[in-house]
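Dear V.,

Thank you for sending over the compound details. I've combined the ligand you provided, zinc ion, with the protein sequence from our construct and run the structure prediction for the complex. I'm sharing the raw inputs here so there's no ambiguity about protonation or stereochemistry in the SMILES, which I know was a concern on your side last time.
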Amino acid sequence: MSERIFIGVAWPYANGSLHLGQIAGAYLPPDIFARYHRTKGNEVVMVSGSDKHGTPTTIKAEQEGKNPEEIAEYYQKEFLDCWQKLGISFDLYTTTGTENHAEVAQDIFLKLLEKDYLYKDTVSQAYCTKCQRFLPDRYIEGICPHCHSPNARGDQCEACGKPLDAPELIEARCRLCGTPPEYRDSEQFFLRLPVFRDRLLDWVKQQTHWRLNVLNFTKRFLEEGLIDRAITRDIEWGVPVPVEGFENKRIYVWFEAVIGYLSATKEWAKLQGKPEKWRDFWEKDKGAHSYYFIGKDNIVFHTIIWPAMLMGYSDDLNLPYNVPANEFLTIEGRKLSTSQNWAVWLPDYLSRYDPDPLRYLLSINMPETSDTDFSWRKFIRRNNDELVATYGNLVHRVLTFTYRNFDGRVPQAGELDRQSQALLKKAEDTLTTMDALIYGCHFREAIRTAMSLAQETNRYLDEKSPWKAIKENRQDAADSLYVALSVISQLKTMLYPFLPFSSQKLHEYLGFEGKVEDYGWKLQDLPPGQKLLEPKPLFVKLDRTLAEEEASRLGHAHYD
Ligand SMILES: [Zn+2]
Ligand SMILES: [Zn+2]
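Below is the predicted structure of the protein with zinc ion bound, written out as structure tokens.
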């Protein structure tokens, strides 16, 4: 029976280009997952969008003397272009700047208010006397009260991952001018998070299928206790607070952005011409499972705050089924830092290289359970030694040899020997193993399994050596080539979620029509006599000296 899968993907701030840390952490994994489920014939909706309202966007606008709308529009275009080139197959990639999103966010706000989960209170809010303005949390920096990291922001400490309220910071200062902020009274709305604590804890304890890091982090957080949190601010940029007397305030971004998952699904449904279709993916009785793909710095918002908001809003909507948060990607052995330009920017990468080699490296080196490192040397080595030498050459030598010697068609096999049957069985088993691995979000292990099948097929060919056999016994060569082609035909299916561009090419070289996805996650029957397409190499070998050249760009001024 087909399943319904909702895939929510972290909303990037529209304030700067995407980098490989984000791709490895939150964007490639959901795409692998979505492509796999679509191939299985499951109903998938994968949504995300640019967070236009985060203060990082207003900070960037101020730095560049532009308005936030211009900045957000610029990056929205760039992001869409990147998704297309890298093959991140969103069903909808929108923004939080739509009317639809504002409506859904305000509806949730008002429903929570009506149910008394929100209340008004006077807070003292940071005000910079030099800049003459209220300072949003991200405009304040200081020492983290928990881990004493020196550069914690007023909303969260990046070093220890704890969310913060600006007044908790030690030696707080205005990010724009360095002046210690003053606190002035202002009336804001608060979310009563503690009333959800017991329900959340009961729910979280049942999520034994979550990754341990996510489960433990969430439990610990809940056990330490929750506090009421302000969800409105004195800012001009954002979704207006739909309450009289609060016209000049905005719903604060951490509360509003997560609502994007629901609003984007509604927008997607409208665009499909089936405005009620969102219910299939959100209402409990429709049986969908929701997955949220994020980096580890976002765990709290997806395992505590968003579930609490959903619990308060309605009893009928799905809570997250799984939140497979990834750890971080370091770059050349150092923590990634966008401000120091210690990052590999995606548009930059895509201007020089193909998408699949990056997808390959980030998959086989995915920071699923611990941080992993990206280095250009590793990138080139894995491209040359694994993608080209193990997989690409296997495909290319089998296809070209068959194409030239068997009239451009899949040869007819005779009775297969034990070794050949064993390899075909292994391909079948690998498909089953990978099915379970990807279903459980173990992407790194899954692609390793596929690559070991490719290795084994190379060994098989070395032994069978059809290039020699063909001179003595044409049928022997036909048999081993048929077996190898069959395995390759399975490889293009199992590697499709990871390497969609080369899988599609391979699909066509093998003489199939349409898209890989249309053929399902199952053994691909390769009809003898099927006409092959003249093959070209799937991957390009890269010059090893590029590694040094690429690495030397790190840490210098950003190209834009
Ligand atoms: Zn900290
Ligand atoms: Zn200031």
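A first observation: The radius of gyration is 26 Å.

Warm regards,
I. M.
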